[in-house]
Structures are given as C-alpha cells and as structure tokens.
C-alpha cells in the first residue's frame, strides 16, 4: 500500500504540469461559457429563443446535447457539457496509457517491476492518480461554473458530471492497456472510445423527443450507452439528481477491477491481442520515404477515416429520421418555417452540413497527427538513422506532407461518401450524392492549413511541435464552436481557417467560397514550402 | 588503397546553447584505415559523428568528408556512408527484415547475397516486430543494414555495445572484410580493448578536445600493464622496485601497474620473489583516463 502511494506520487510528479493545463483548460471553458451566457443572454426571453432554435435543430442537439429549460445554468450546461466531457475523457485516457502500456513498451515498467511490489501495483497507482485527478477536475470545473455566476449546488453536480465521465475513461483505458501491445495503439483505441461515447450520446440526443414548449428535449435510448449521456442525465441546474452519475462510476469500478485482475495474471509486456509476426522482406514500396510515411500512418488513418465515415453515416441515416420528427411536431415545423423562410436549407441539409464540418475537423486532426509523427521520429532518434541515407530532408518532409494531405482528403471523402450512400439508401431526395461529397471536401483546404502550420512548427521550433500542433487545432475548434457563443471579436474568430470553409449544402458554392478555398490551399502550399526551406537550416535535435 | 584523407576536421567547435560540446577538435581519418575514436561517456564522440553526417552544423571550424562539407552536401556524402548510431531506435511496428530493406533501399538496395549471409551469421530473426527486439537485436538490424551494401566509409557509433561475445566476433569479421575491400571505418568506442584489436590508428578525445592521436604503437607510452600476483614469499623484492606504480599490497598479494618497457625487469623480480598465481591485463581506457589525463588536469591547474 505504501509502495503504491509512492508510485502514485511519482507519477503525479511527472504529470503535474500536463494535468494542471488539462484541468484548468476544461474548467476555464466552463467558466467562459457561464460568463458568456450570463452576460449575452441575461434575459429569460433571449434564452428561450436560443433554446427553441436548438431544440428545433437536430444538428445542434447532436453536437451539443440536451436543452433543459431556460435557466442560465441549464443553458450553459447544454452548450458546454458534452465538449468538457470529451476533453475530460481524452485527458484521462492519455494519462492512463502514458503510465501503463507506454511504460511497458519503453521498458521502464521492467525496472519498477523488479522492486518488491505487487505486479499490479503500478496500475493500481495509476488508477489512484486518475481518481485523484478527477476529484480535482470535478472541484475545479464546479468552481469554474460557480465563478461564472451559476448556483453553487448545481455547479457542484455539474463538476461531478464532468469528473464521473473522466473517471469512467480512466478505468476503460486501463482495460484497453491490457489488450493492446503498443502505447500508440492503446492511445488510439482509447481516443476512439471517447469519440464513440460522444457519437452515441449525439445520436440519442438528435433522436430525442422535444416537449411541446420546445424548452426541453428528452434523449432517445442510444444515449444510455454513453457515459456522457449518463452525465447529462444528472441535469445539474434543474432536478440536480446525482444518481445517474453512479452509472459511469460503478462501470468504472468494475472495469478497474477487471484491468487489475488481467494485469495480475499476465506477463510483463504481453497483451491480450498479441503482436503478429511481421514479414521477413518489405514490399518494394516499403523501401522509400513515402512508403515509410504511409506505413506509419495507415493504421491511424484507418481509424480517422472510420470516424469520418461514422459521422457521414449518422448524417445520412439520421438526417431523414430527424426531419420526420421535426415534421411531426407542429410547433417545431412552424419555428423552422419562421427561421428559414426560403426553406432551401431544410433540416436534413443543416444536419449534414454540421456533421460534415465535424468530419473536416477529424481530417485536420489526421493531417496534423501525420506531421507530428515527424517530431516523434526525430526525438526518438529514428530520423538520425533515416537521414543518414542519401536523401534530402526536403524529401523526407515532402513524403510526410503528401501522406498528411492524402489523410486529410480521405477522411473527408470517407465522411462524404458514407453520407451520400446513406442518404441514397434511405431514399431522401435532397441534393444529389455529388453535392454531399463536395460538401465534405469543402473542409479540406482549411484542414490543409493546419497541417502546413504543423509542418512549419516542426521546421522551426521542433520541441514545441506536439503542443502547438494539437493546441492550434483545439483553438480552431473552440473558435469555431464557441466563437459565436462567447461573442469573440470577429477578427479573432476569422483567424480559424474553418471559418472560411463554406457549409455546403446549406450555403451555396459561390465565387466567394471558391476564392476562399483557393486562398486557403495556396496559404497551405506556401507554408509547406517555407517549412521545407527552413528544415534544412537547423540541427536535428532530440 | 589510397592515402588521402576521408575525414578531416580542423578546429571544429560545436556549441549547444552555452555548453561547448566540441572545442577545436581535429580529427583526420585516412583512406583505407580503421580508425578508433575513443573517449569516455559524454566526451563528444556522438556529437562529432553527427557533425560528420551533416545532422548538426558545426558552430565554427572546417569539416570535410570525402573533401566535401557534409552540412552543405549531405546527400552526396551519404551516398558512400553506412552509419550505425550509438542508440539504435527502430520503427516499432516494422519487422526487422522490413527495417533492413528500408535502410538499404534508401541507399540504393542491398547486396542480396550479403544480406542473407549477414542475417545468417548474426542469427537474426527478420520476422519479429522491432518493438519486441532487445537492444542487441536492434543493434544487429542496424549493423546488417550497414554492412549489406558496400560503402566507402562506415561510421559506427559504439556498435558492439549490445552484442554478446559470439556476435562481437561476427562484427569484427565484418570490419576486417570491409577493410580488406578498401573501405574506411570510423569506429567510436569507450572500450580500449575493442579498439586495439581492430584499429590501425586511434584518436582519443576528452571534453570535446583531442588529447591523443596516432597509431597504436605511438600510444604505447600511455600503456601500462596491470599486474596482480599472489602467494609472494618475499614481497619486498618487488615492492621496492621503482618501475612499480600504484602499488597495493594485501598480505601475500600485490597489485600494481608497470610500463611495457619495464616488464622484463618486473617479471624477473616477481620470479625472484616466488609466486603461486599471476594475472596480467591490458589497461582499460577508464584506468588510462584516471591515471593519465587526471594528471594532465592537475598540471594544467
């Protein structure tokens, strides 16, 4: 027990800055949302307005969550909770994999394991650290809401709802770490699980039933499969019922015990899904820079593309269903007719545009990740081995840029094709398939800008590549999703490349949209060229 | 076999921020020789090799590899270089065979016969994923990739660190083979014995500066043999001799160091004293540094 505590303290020491940034970042998001709603939507009537619009728009429900009345707290929770929960999930899965599977893969676990401690003690220490981190997260998130002017009791439950989801993912990641042989694979699988939790909640909410007043929506059954869905059910600022939070907490306890039992029984370094033997010879393509870049990216890309295809499928399958729901609700139909006079932008289109925009962000993430891998290659000294070959650094960068650009495009294409096929299959006649695919691809230029910026960062400040690469993408996402709500100045919002992608099929593909796409692509090309030039000027650094 | 310089640095300086890693380092490697590059950990061996590969740029001084500046002409110089880094890290999800094919492929492809032979001799399993390889196996993969295609210059950074004695023999055989074919080898190490068996000339560096350079015979003056004798009937006979350095006596056991030129006299005295056991060992680089260069430090101060 004493040894386990010492291990937990040692792990906490290693993580202290990283965890501070995650916890503060998530809490500040809650604080900012609370402050913004408080000042911008001070009146009951204004809040009723936005809630009604949201309730009438399944895309909104899918992305954000469930409207729960017009109280300030309820509006904040509706706007911010799902995103905070996703961030909490990622914080915790990364935390757990970093201390478990990655440690085993790098051989450090062996060093620790030789000391007189139980085989499962390091994992137990990580679970303990995760639990402590989520207590901290709950407290800070609650403090953020309260500091933003929300009632303390409700804030406390809302904070717990964030922490409960975080704790669920601590345990879930601990189990995944037992199954997968590599830290990278385990991180990918765990992040996909967080995405799945968001997706299931989104489907449940988009299919939810709106009350006649349009002030409250009750979600459909798929949200019961998601810890984030259970977190929502606590409805902190109305009924304030902490009981639903017990579901993810109990699930976490069960998973944690399972992970500990597996760890106690398995060999160090072994995994339930073992590594297959590789090939004794590489293919012809595997002997080039592009071949290597592709080889390193392909499994990750399959994951991102699957995510894109899932979003596209949801857009195509769910769009018509929610359109029917809306049509069956007279007050909703009336509201939509009032909001969108031309009715050109029907419900299906709005829904598709929102989800394909999300897929665009996934594409950008795939591209950025491909560039960040170059930094890992350099920091882990593989670049040194590779660049001892008679190939220029420019060629190395170009190979990775090509794979990154292909990744960006194929994630969007996967989303667009899936949406198009699903719409076709459901017999919906809005827009032909080509338009939907084009709508997905419209986000490619903006995503390429993020990829090129990551390349430039790598060329100039290699040690900051990873934090800046993800940080800028997160900033772009927050500006896009929360810019309006937080009433950020227009110039700041316009900094995000995503702001300049047309939201087809709702908006038209006019000359402005085409010019913007060309300008973004050109900017990406220039940034990539500059990065190529600058990479030659610096030392390789570990 | 020519006599030109394959590697030549003049007053090479490399700073990392405020830290001076290399300080007016002069290194000269002639064509066709196996050159030992010796120094304790942290002396700047790897940094020098990285400069020679153009991975990092010299802060000042001249660097020539095949007569070219490796920073400006990295690709041209790399065409004729095979490199094995000190800490071999491989792509965890590639098999060993794929890694070898990638590294040789980038250089223009392996000699198939050599590749097969090397995999065989190093007893290397090319099907396993690199993530499952031990340090020695990762080292083998990099060595096989380096030797599977002929090069003019082999740059090897502490290459036998993870190898067991049997594999070390295979490694030495390869060094002798490429040398016989006329290639040049620059081999860094912190083990004097390894360098002695393989190298024609050595350069010894310490804190980023060359402290000794020359053929092994030239460095003979640095070499003291370590002697340990047990069961002496008459220790006085040996302990009173002036050629005996760093003497330690424990009962009937003596340990001391002696210059190579004094060995005849010292051994005769030992025989005179009467012994029942004798161990004679070459000096380790560590002891050499401890003795020789810490004294230099003392004089400088």
What would a concise description of this structure say?
The complex is a heterodimer of chains A (542) and B (301). By secondary structure, chain A is mainly α.
N-to-C order of helices and strands of chain B: EEEHEHEHHHEHEHEEEHEEHEH
**What Rg of chain A is obtained from the alpha carbons, in whole angstroms?**
24 Å
What is the residue-averaged pLDDT of chain A?
Answer: 89
Estimate percent helicity of chain B: 25-40%
CATH architecture of the largest domain in chain B: 3-Layer(aba) Sandwich
CATH class of the largest domain in chain B: Alpha Beta
Main beta sheet of chain B: 6 strands, mixed
Topology of chain A as a string of helices (H) and strands (E)? HHHHHHHHHEEHHHHHHHHHHHH
Give the overall shape of chain B.
Answer: globular
Largest sheet of chain A: 2 strands, antiparallel
Q: Can you count the beta strands of chain B?
A: 13
- The geometry of chain A reads as globular
Question: What would the keywords be for this entry?
Answer:
heterodimer; A: mainly alpha; 2 domains; globular; B: Rossmann fold; Alpha-Beta Plaits; six-stranded mixed sheet; four-stranded antiparallel sheet
Topology:
The complex is a heterodimer of chains A (about 550) and B (about 300).
Chain A: H1 2-40, H2 44-55, H3 58-63, H4 72-99, H5 101-106, H6 108-113, H7 121-147, H8 152-179, H9 183-206, E1 209-210, E2 217-218, H10 227-232, H11 246-265, H12 289-328, H13 330-339, H14 347-379, H15 382-386, H16 393-425, H17 433-441, H18 444-460, H19 465-482, H20 490-493, H21 511-535
Antiparallel strand pairs in A: 1-2
Helix pairs in contact in A: 1-4, 1-7, 4-7, 4-8, 4-9, 7-8, 8-9, 8-11, 9-12, 12-14, 12-16, 14-16, 14-17, 14-18, 14-19, 16-17, 16-18, 16-21, 18-19, 18-21
Chain B: E1 5-16, E2 19-30, E3 34-38, H1 45-52, E4 60-65, H2 74-78, E5 81-84, H3 96-106, H4 112-121, H5 135-147, E6 153-157, H6 165-180, E7 184-189, H7 192-198, E8 201-206, E9 209-215, E10 224-230, H8 236-239, E11 245-250, E12 253-259, H9 263-273, E13 277-281, H10 285-300
Parallel strand pairs in B: 3-7, 3-8, 5-6, 6-7
Antiparallel strand pairs in B: 1-2, 1-4, 8-9, 10-12, 10-13, 11-12
